Amino acid sequence: MLEKREFYINGEWVTPSEARDHQVIDPSTEEPCAVVSLANEADVNKAVAAAKAAWPDWAATPPEERIALVEKFYQIYKSKAEELAQAITSEMGAPIDLSRAAQVGAGIGHTKAFLAAAKDFQWIKPLGDHAPDTMIVHEPVGVCALITPWNWPMNQISLKVIAAAIAGCTMVLKPSEESPINAMIFAEAMDEAGFPKGVFNLINGDGAVTGNALTGHPDVDMVSFTGSTRAGAIISKNAADSVKRVHLELGGKGANIVFADADDKAVKRGVIQMMNNSGQSCNAPSRMLVEKSIYDEAVETAAKTAEIIAVGDSHEEGRHIGPVVNEAQWNKIQGLIQKGIDEGARLVAGGLGRPDGMNRGYYVKPTIFADVNNDMTIAREEIFGPVLTMIPFENEAEAIEIANDTVYGLTNYVQTQDGAKANRVALKLRSGMVEMNGNPRGAGAPFGGMKQSGNGREAGVWGIEDFLEVKAIGGWS
Ligand code: NAD
């Protein structure tokens, strides 16, 4: 078994100050695949001190030099793609093809988009013709705590680390304890790229001890967090005493509005998108709202689509979905499926238990519930598993009302061949992102949510700005 107990602090791999071993379990096999250490408060203090000491020089380094280092890192990152994909598959169970193309692919893609955005960024610019002597200056926020989840680990780590580095911030990354190994490979690439000591630090750890010490640390200026709404609220409170900037990317319960005039692939596409990564995506289209005139046909298509989605060992190549991340998540999903049945939703595909013939691994059957009412638990809670709820609607106004009737506001989806209607509906949806007719947002578009899905935006120029202070200087000559 892989043993990787060190943390990356001040440009070197160091031994933790206390033995707090943590086993990483491969969800396809239920066997441990690695052991790492969990940082205690002393380790957190050491990592924050390194980031603090490195900050003045890094902040003063010209942006072109910071960008050049990221460019170097980008080449090394690409060369480690296969190693990263294998680690992700073992740690969190994404099928290897998905790990290669999407999991690692997204991280590399964001890095490329950041490099493009950074080259055009105006670090100092005049306010405008009406105030020619007022200059707007962008400065790094300072020492950042970056806390990430396990579901799209390279994606989330890249969104934070690369943006912070370009902005001139120094940082301590704490990846999820479920998926620490890919983050350590990422750290090896940062090391090879030659960032100055202390600019980037990595500690592994849990939320209760490590995360808590990091997000309450007086020398941390900003926390950038991606994870559950539950943990986001705790972190906000913890960071409040020292008035840190807190960026939150949290949960979702996306609606996918399928109008009667949608293209004939819309329902199938929605099911496949929902099941991708075994439903473990914050922006999963987990509530399919279907116009009544095509509802019965849509339910039939969705059930048939779910039944032919293969579930299989993540280490094997080919098109299938893998397990969910761990036993606790498997149990939670089973509980929610049972709740759906108990509350009167109609189960049309999948259901309780593992798929036939699978006795090991945290595998869940691709599951579809029809006749769901938006008040049911399965329509309100983020399930984070391959479970789709289908809700009928009468007209455009009702579809918008149901879509917005949630505490979340991350991504919604619209399917119609009427362009004017698509745009009209998109503008009324309370979410940070809307995708229409299977068209994804462009690379470098802002990513983030409204309401309890969080605040701030990641990716592209918005992602860099998130790590910057804006200073206004009057009397510039
Ligand atoms: P989680 O909140 O349990 O953990 C996320 C990270 O926070 C981990 O590193 C964990 O160790 C840490 N953490 C937990 N409690 C903490 C605390 N009290 N203080 C400091 N750190 C703490 O979430 P998860 O299960 O890893 O990820 C799934 C969740 O993440 C889902 O809700 C999903 O929607 C959300 N997510 C959101 C986005 C987005 O961009 N909006 C992207 C991916 C995942």
From TrEMBL:
<comment type="similarity">
    <text>Belongs to the aldehyde dehydrogenase family.</text>
</comment>
<feature type="domain" description="Aldehyde dehydrogenase">
    <location>
        <begin position="13"/>
        <end position="473"/>
    </location>
</feature>
<protein>
    <submittedName>
        <fullName>Aldehyde dehydrogenase family protein</fullName>
    </submittedName>
</protein>
<dbReference type="InterPro" id="IPR015590">
    <property type="entry name" value="Aldehyde_DH_dom"/>
</dbReference>
<dbReference type="Pfam" id="PF00171">
    <property type="entry name" value="Aldedh"/>
</dbReference>
